[in-house]
Amino acid sequence: MGSTECETVGFIDVGTNSIHLLVVRFYPESMGTPVFQDKESVRLGQSLYSTGSISQEAVDKAGLVVARFAHISRELGADNVLVYATCAAREASNRRELVERMSAGAEVKVIPGVEEARLIGLGVLGQHPVGRNLVIDIGGGSTEVILNHDGENVYIDSLRMGAVRYAYGLGIDCSQPVSDRDFNSILRSVDASSYHAVNGVRGHGFDEATGSSGTMIALAEMCAARRGDNDASYMLLDELRQIIADVRAMDQQQRASVPGLGKSRTDIIVTGGAIAQELMELFGIQRIRISTRGLKQGMQTDYLISQGNTVYDTRDSSVRALAHRCNYDRKHSDAVERYCMMLFDQSYELGMHSMKGNMRNLLSSAAILHDIGEHISYTDHNLISQMIIEHAGLVGFDMNEVRMMGLMVRFHHKKFPGPRDSRLADLSPLQATEVRKCAMFLKMADVLDRHRTSMISDIRLTRSAGILMLELSSEDEPSMEMWRLDKLKPDFEKLFGLRLTAVWKHRCPRDNLFYKDNNTELLS
Fold first, then answer.
1. What are the strands of the beta sheet with 513-516, ordered from one edge?
2. What global pTM score does this model have?
3. Burial track 161-194 (b if 16+ CB lie within 10 A, e otherwise)
4. Rounded distance, CA 15 to CA 57, Å?
5. Does domain 115-296 have CATH number 3.30.420.150?
6. Whether the Cβ atoms of residue 70 and residue 106 lie closer than 8 Å to each other
7. Confidence bin at 4 (pLDDT 50/70/90)
């Protein structure tokens, strides 16, 4: 698919600590996929919260970074570049100068705190979240709190507290060890600033809490490093308390050696950690999920909605976007996906398996992506396709689902695996069987579009006396497809306990009637 068939947009988030760039390509039938990301630490808030205005050096650097990011976006094909400035730009006495300097690269919008919170919630939770979700985003100058019930924001606020604001605006030297007295002072500031938010959230309640922003990610990475499993997808209150107690006893130079903590955050990690710790205490959160998504992704989703696109399924969108990026053969993939669904649904009705909607969705996605490795090498395209699927960061799927899709794709080509194949070892026995059955459907569907002409117009399955009959409808005789199906018989029979047989049903295009060709050889 050529670039003229999709739209590219650059999204620039001008934060109090850093400026972020996200360039997204909106492929057809997708919610968009990132093609480039970058960030630069500008620290607009460092001088702002100590002097009341942003330093000239920071203003100039912000202008340079925004201009450069806008240029990169356009070089990547973006006709549209959106720049949203947040807390520092809202509060600076020299805001006009800052905006004018950045506007040399693109039009800049300074957004209110509640709009920032709305976009963060949209980025973290997506367009159609389910359940009661609390999102806490600790930025450099503000902390956004979003409580969403089944897609509706029932509480939303932007609090005047942030890692940079507290590090440089409370009169505490955070480059040195922070005393108990000073740390308690930070906690009291959190209490005062979050009073209304805590009461508002408590009045509604929530099922799951999610933390976002660079501060939350850094804290989770520190906890994961100490835990030893490198799983930064969550953070526990108990481990956060211990990490912050240890880190605040160090000076800035010593903190640079703490595993998981980047050097650019050594001066603000104590204040950022204090905010996270106290909010978890106040909200009663013992375990918080960590998201790498935030304002930029919210800008992306909001842009999509503004263009009238509101119905994309997250899974299908991420699958289609990956397929387009790999220049897939859409006609072939759609035919294979269609045949897979016919085989899956009709075999279910015949009692050949008991798999439900989720496995059907995984098979559908695997069918769309089964040949994406061909743009690198046809010879081992099934292995390459598996590798791409398992490392593409597909949104909407968990790690186990991605693994199962990858295996379906791997097994659709060349030798079919037995039940004890070592590549199935990380799946449960039931999952291994389901993957093999789905892989067989995918292998059969791929064979039925062997020459990529979509010649099979319909498939009908019937089962009788240990035989499964495939009735294939097409205008032309699918002899070569049937010969290739013949080679699948031994593996099919071992897997399903049925003998595979096929017959061609001739479709006459003139009167749209079907005639069974009695001379067609059955696979017996």
1. 458-464, 467-474, 499-508, 513-516
2. 0.70
3. bbbbbbbbbeebebeebbeeebbebbeebbeebb
4. 16
5. yes
6. yes
7. very low
d(CA 455, CA 474): 6
Burial of 470 (0-12, 13-18, 19+ CB in 10 A): buried
Q: Report the half-sphere exposure of 299 (CA within 13 A, side-chain side).
A: 25
**Going by CATH, does the domain composed of 314-516 fall within 1.10.3210.10?**
yes
Residue 400 CA to chain centroid, in angstroms?
Answer: 15
Three-state DSSP at 35 gives: strand
**Least confident window among 202-206, 231-235, 432-436:** 202-206
CATH superfamily entry for domain 3-111? ATPase, nucleotide binding domain (3.30.420.40)
CB–CB of 489/523 below 8 Å?
Answer: yes
Cα angle, residue 508 at apex, residues 503 and 514 outer, rounded to 5°: 45
Match 């017959």 to its residue by tokens: 503
Type of residue at 187: L
DSSP alpha helices (H): ranges in 76-179?
Answer: 87-91, 95-102, 113-125, 163-169
What are 185-231's pLDDT values in tens digits?
999 999 999 999 999 998 889 999 999 999 999 999 999 999 988 89
Q: In this structure, what token pair is assigned to residue 356?
A: 């439900």
Q: How far apart are CA 472 and CA 455, in angstroms?
A: 10
With residue 410 as reference, give the H or E element that holds it.
helix 399-411
Instruction: Report angle CA 117, 36, 367 to the nearest 5 degrees.
Output: 95
